[in-house]
Write a structure and sequence with these properties.
The chain is 63% helix and 2% strand. The protein contains 20 helices and 4 strands. Helix 9 runs antiparallel to helix 10, helix 11 runs antiparallel to helix 19 and helix 19 crosses helix 20. The C terminus is likely disordered.
Length: 433
C-alpha cells in the first residue's frame, strides 16, 4: 500500500471548530437524549468526513468494516428474517462510518480526556433518576422539549426492585454505569485537582458505584471490578490484583456449587444475600430454579446449533428472536453473546472480521497503554479509555447492550479513540475558521 503520512490521513490541520463543538454537545446529551445527541453527532460526522473522503482507503483499519458491510448486505437478500434483516443493518453499518468519522475529534490525549469527561457529565441524569427512583419513589415518564427528551422512569425499577433510571431497563443502565465507571476513577485520580474538585469527583464516583450495584446486574458488577486495575495502571498490579482476589474470594465461595457446604455457608454469612443469590442465579420462584430455556448457556447452545446449520451468511438480523420462540416456546431477543449473535445473524466471515478487528485493536492499544513507557501527564485518561472500551467488550460476552443505540454509539466512539491512541504522536491540530 502506498505510504501516506499520519497528518494526511487525519487531516490534522483542518478540524472544524463547529464540528468539534457539535461532537462535544452530542457526547453531553448522549445518555439523556439519543435524538438530540444523534443530531449533533451527525453534523460532526458530516463535517469531519467532508475534509477527508479522499484518504478513507489509505487506513487499513477501515478494510474489515468495508468487507463486513458488503457481506452483511449480500446476506440480506436471502435472509430468513426477511425485511428485519435490512432494518438490522442500522445497528452496524452507520457505526462503521462513526468509527472513521469521529477520529479527527479524538486525536490527542487531551481530546480524549475532554470527550470522556463530557460523557461522564452527561451521566449525571442517569445516576440522579436511578437513585431517586429507588430511594425516593420517583416515576415517569418525564417529557421535555415537546417530546425530544423522554425519560421512562419506571416506579420501583425495571425489572421491579432493580435500579433502571432513565434507561428504563436495569441491565442497560448497569452497562452504561460500568462503562463510565473507569472515567469516574480517572477523574478522581487525575493530577493537579484541588481538594474541592477531588471531593466532587469522589462523591460522584461513589454515586456511580452505588447506582451500579443497585442495578443488580451481574455483568455490570463484573465490569466494575475488572476495570479498576487497568485504570490504576500496571505499576499497581503486583499488590492490587492479589488484594482484589482476596476480597472477592468470599463471593466465589458463596456462589460456586463445588465449594464444601460448611465453607459456603460461612461465606454466605459474610457476603450480602442479594449479591450471592444473584450471582448464583437462584430465582425467587417457589422451587428455587428457573426454566433451562431462559439461561444463557441454553441460549448459547441453541445459537451454536443455528450457526452449524447456516454458517456462511447467517439467518439475518433479528432471526434469533424469531427462531428461538418457535423452538423453545420462550421469547429472547438475541443470543446474549456478540460473536454468537453475529454468526447467527450474518455468518462466520462477518463475525471473524468484526471480532478480530476489535480484539487486535484492543491488544495493540493495550501494549501502548500498559507495556510501554508512557510519560504523558494525562495518561490516566487513556488507561480509562482503554478500560471503558474493554468493559463494553466484556459486557457483550454475555449480553447485548449494543441494541441500545446510546451504548452502541458510545462503544464505536471509544473504538475510534483507540484507533487514534495507537497512532504516532502528532503535533497539536489547529482549526478551520
Amino acid at each position: 500500500m502506498k505510504n501516506i503520512s499520519f497528518s494526511k490521513i487525519f487531516n490534522l490541520y483542518q478540524i472544524d471548530k463547529i464540528g468539534l463543538n457539535c461532537f462535544h454537545i452530542g457526547l453531553l446529551f448522549l445518555a439523556s437524549s439519543a435524538f438530540i445527541s444523534a443530531i449533533f453527532l451527525l453534523f460532526s460526522l458530516i463535517i469531519s468526513s467532508s475534509h477527508r473522503f479522499n484518504v478513507y482507503l489509505h487506513d487499513k483499519w477501515n478494510y474489515p468494516l468495508l468487507i463486513a458491510a458488503f457481506l452483511m448486505v449480500l446476506g440480506c437478500f436471502r435472509a430468513y428474517s426477511g425485511w428485519l434483516a435490512w432494518i438490522g443493518l442500522v445497528n452496524w453499518i452507520p457505526f462503521f462510518w462513526c468509527f472513521w468519522g469521529f477520529q479527527p475529534y479524538l486525536l490527542s490525549v487531551d481530546n480524549r480526556r475532554k470527550a470522556s469527561l463530557l460523557l461522564l457529565a452527561g451521566s449525571v441524569p442517569v445516576v440522579v433518576t436511578g437513585l431517586g427512583q429507588v430511594w425516593l419513589g420517583w416515576s415517569g415518564p418525564w417529557v421535555a422539549l415537546n417530546g425530544l427528551i423522554i425519560w421512562f422512569v419506571a416506579p420501583g425499577g425495571q425489572p421491579l426492585g432493580r435500579l433502571s433510571g432513565l434507561f428504563n431497563y436495569a441491565n442497560i443502565t448497569g452497562a452504561w454505569l460500568a462503562f463510565v465507571w473507569p472515567i469516574a476513577l480517572a477523574f478522581l485520580l487525575q493530577p493537579s485537582l484541588n481538594w474541592v474538585k477531588r471531593g466532587v469527583a469522589f462523591l460522584f464516583g461513589m454515586s456511580i458505584c452505588i447506582a451500579l450495584i443497585l442495578t443488580n446486574s451481574r455483568n455490570a458488577w463484573g465490569g466494575m471490578v475488572l476495570s479498576i486495575p487497568f485504570v490504576l495502571g500496571s505499576a499497581t498490579w503486583f499488590w492490587l490484583i492479589p488484594l482484589l482476589f482476596t476480597l472477592l474470594l468470599p463471593v466465589v465461595f458463596a456462589v460456586l456449587p463445588i465449594v464444601p457446604f460448611e465453607l459456603q455457608l460461612f461465606a454466605r454469612k459474610i457476603v450480602p444475600e442479594g449479591i450471592w443469590t444473584r450471582l448464583a442465579d437462584i430465582s425467587l420462584s417457589s422451587n428455587g430454579s428457573r426454566p433451562l430455556e431462559t439461561t444463557r448457556i441454553f441460549q448459547w447452545k441453541e445459537a451454536i446449533n443455528l450457526f452449524f446449520q447456516k454458517p456462511w451468511f447467517g439467518y439475518g438480523a433479528a432471526a434469533f428472536s424469531i427462531i428461538y420462540p418457535l423452538r423453545q416456546g420462550i421469547w429472547h431477543g438475541h443470543a446474549h453473546n456478540l460473536p454468537l449473535e453475529l454468526v447467527v445473524a450474518h455468518g462466520l466471515p462477518v463475525a471473524i472480521l468484526l471480532v478480530s478487528m476489535i480484539l487486535v485493536l484492543l491488544i495493540i492499544s493495550f501494549k501502548k497503554c500498559f507495556l510501554t513507557v508512557y510519560h504523558d501527564r494525562q495518561s490516566v485518561f487513556d488507561r480509562a479509555w482503554w478500560a471503558a472500551t474493554f468493559t463494553l467488550v466484556f459486557l457483550h460476552a454475555s449480553d447485548m447492550p449494543m441494541f441500545d443505540s446510546r451504548i452502541n454509539l458510545a462503544g464505536w466512539i471509544f473504538l475510534s479513540g483507540l484507533r487514534c491512541l495507537i497512532t504516532p504522536k502528532a503535533p497539536k491540530p489547529s482549526f478551520d475558521d
